[in-house]
Every structure is written in structure tokens, then in C-alpha cells.
Amino acid sequence: MLDIAIIGGGPAGLSAGLYTTRGGAKNVVMFERGMPGGQITGSSEIENYPGVKDVLSGFDFMQPWQEQCFRFGLKSEQVNVERVAKKGEHFAIHTDNGDFEARAVIVCTGGSPKRSGVAGEDKYYGRGISTCATCDGFFYKGQHVGVLGGGDTALEEALYLSEICEKVTLFHRRNEFRAAPVTVAKAQSKENIVFKTPTIIDEFLGDSKGLTGIRYTHKDTNQQETLELNGFFVFIGYDVNNQILLQEDGSFLCEMSKFGEVIVDLNMKTNVPGLFVAGDLRIDAAKQVVCAAGDGARAALSALAYLEHHK
Fold it and tell me: What does the domain layout of the chain look like in residue ranges?
């Protein structure tokens, strides 16, 4: 019987592992399909984590986290978790390599931004194409960038980028937007945000140094044009990794939002006692490394308090 099972090995999961083991939990296992670190290990540059003055790759940035967490007794199981279920007062962790039981569970499986599928996106992703304005907008200070999307996130990120960049060109496949009217109006009032609608991005263009522009088509006229850009941001949705919470009867283990995110309180507690969720899987997640780490620490403290009250 595990004291605490942690599902996911990104910043939230590793922080939860650090705080649970250092806080006195003796039998804590982190389940991760591969090496710990999470999707942040694929980032080319991390420069906005407080206290880390050097600009590091995501892989180099996460490397010391593992060493620090395992120093206090955190164990790791590199298996695929298929489902977490309630089993009496405890939890059953079903994996592709056998089942485990735990008194408490912290789920930190995160999520990932949707890709556009446009030609050249994979080639220039991280080399001019990004899905996080807060992370990468600063690299394009005073330059011209593009934004793809028509929801609240796309419009809000375009507004954010407009304060940093000289010009923001926003592309959307329709003339109408899913974003709140007040957000659309605010973006339309910005002199340095240009709207290109209805349009379809046909191809991302670049060279050995990275992205240089795009080729796109006006849907009304079928006219194709190219546009030189220094950077491009894709905001067409976000997929949370909530599959392990799906039960055999098709319901979810805990209360979820309409977008499939887990509803938690400020202590990362779900409506199921002993089940905690941290990082991008929870509602209102900021999708920043520092926030995920804080979530993991908060969830760990809550899990320790839960174990103390349920000896």
C-alpha cells in the first residue's frame, strides 16, 4: 500500500514528490511513462523561472529537479497508468504493468496545446512557432508576429503580444469570433493588431535559422498571399490529459468542468476525499512552470494533511 501515488512527472508532479517525501511521507511513488520532466523538456529556452538567471533548455532546466526530488526518497515507476479508481477508502492505480493501491493520489498529467497541422509547423515549432505568448512573446519584442485562433485565448494572447511587439496580425478562418464580444472589441481597438479574416494558413515558411513567414489564403476570394513574420503563435485549443480519471462506466472519478478539466479548490482538493489534482489538468490553470510547481507543492501539503487525519 502506497502512502501517496503521484501520476505525472512534470513540474507539478516533481514538486509534489519533493514536498510529500520531504514532509514525511514514507512510501511515495511517481508514475510516469518515460523519464520525468514533462513537456517542458521540449522547450528550447527557459528564461522566466524566478531565481534561475541562466537561459536554459527545457531539458537542462528540469534535470536538477529529478535529482533533488529523488534525494528525499521519491520512487519512480516508468509505466503507463491506464486508470485511477476508488477502491473502498483507498485508490486503485491500474497500469500496463500491474495494479497498485494508494491511500492518496495526486494527478498531474497536464495537457498540451492543439497543433494546427499546417505544413511546416513541426519543422519550425520552437524555432519561430509557439503556443505560449507569456513564455515566448518577449523574444519578439518590437517585431511583427502572427496569431492563429478565434477564441478567448487567441484574442487575449494577441492583446498581450500587442504590448510587446510592434505589430500583431491575427488570422481566423471565420469573420465571427468565439471570444467574448468585449475581448474582440478591445483587440479591434488596438492600432497594432491587424485582423485577417476569413483566412486559412497554408504553409509556414522558413530557412535554416527558423520561421520567416507564412503563406495563407483569403477564403472569400481564394487569393493566396505570403507575409513575412518574425514569430507565430497558435491558439486553437488545449487538450487536457484526463483519460486516467475515466471510469469503466464512462463517468469520471471526480467532478469535471465542461472542458474536461478537473474542478479543485485552492488546496488542489477534488470532490473525492484523498484525490488531488495539480498543474494544467485543473480548472483555471495558468499553464506556466512556476504555477504548476506551486500547484504540486500545495497538493502535496494537502495530501499530507489528509493522511494525518486518516491514519
Answer: 2-112+238-309, 115-234
φ/ψ (deg, to 5) at 180: -60, 140
Catalytic residue among 3, 108, 136, 254: 136
Instruction: Write the DSSP symbol of residue 140.
Output: G
The one-digit pLDDT tens for each residue of the chain (311 residues) are 999 999 999 999 999 999 999 999 989 999 998 766 777 776 667 888 899 988 887 888 888 998 898 999 999 999 999 999 999 999 999 999 899 999 999 999 998 888 899 999 999 999 999 998 888 899 999 999 999 999 988 998 999 999 999 999 999 999 999 988 999 999 999 999 999 999 999 999 999 999 999 999 999 999 999 999 999 999 998 889 999 999 999 999 999 999 999 999 999 999 999 999 999 999 999 888 899 999 999 999 999 999 999 88
Residue 290 CA, distance from chain mean position: 12
Q: Are strands 98-107 and 90-95 parallel, antiparallel or unpaired?
A: antiparallel
In the annotation, is 291 catalytic?
A: no
In three-state secondary structure terms, 281 is helix
Q: Where are the beta strands (DSSP E) in the chain?
A: 2-7, 28-31, 75-77, 81-87, 90-95, 98-107, 111-113, 129-130, 144-148, 167-171, 193-196, 199-207, 210-218, 224-228, 231-234, 238-240, 275-277
Note the pTM of the prediction, 2 decimals: 0.78
* Nearest alpha-carbon partner for 13 in 102, 110, 111, 108: 108
CB 112 within 8 A of CB 99: no
Report how far residue 310's alpha carbon sits from residue 251's, in angstroms, rounded to the nearest whole number: 27
Catalytic site includes residue 69: no
Fold of 2-112+238-309: FAD/NAD(P)-binding domain (3.50.50)
Tell which CATH classification among 3.50.50.60, 3.65.10.10, 3.40.50.300, 3.20.110.20 matches the domain 115-234: 3.50.50.60
Is 132 an annotated catalytic residue? yes
